[in-house]
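All the exercises in this workshop are built on plain-text protein records. A record pairs a protein's sequence with a compact description of its fold. Backbone structure tokens are a discrete shorthand for how the chain folds in space. Once this layout is familiar, the rest of the handout is easier to follow. As an example, a complete record with its sequence and its structure tokens follows.
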Amino acid sequence: MPGVSVVSVPVTDQDRAAAFYTEYLGFRVIEDQQMGPDMRWVQLGCDGQQATITLTTWFDVMTPGTVQGLLVDVDDADGTRSKMAAAGIECSELDEQPWGRFFTTKDPDGNGVIVARTTSAHS
């Protein structure tokens, strides 16, 4: 198996969510396509990473805010937390564990995100 390709993150506003993930967590929009009159495929990724996320609005059983524990590896957990906190985004205190330095936060829809600088290449 080559690995995880796409993780769906349920949101209410794809543009607002994309702005959060790109501005604060280093993602970039790799695809934004209409999927019919009322649906868009908005896929975000990071350079050199196989796994991506798609910001979904069309799954009835996936309520925005229900994803918890999405771990995003960043280059600088301290700097990322400072930038987010300065923008008024609620963040936990930084924590240090054997696997890395991290804090938790929520995206605009309440999906839980662990923002970390992991100590290994494979989180």
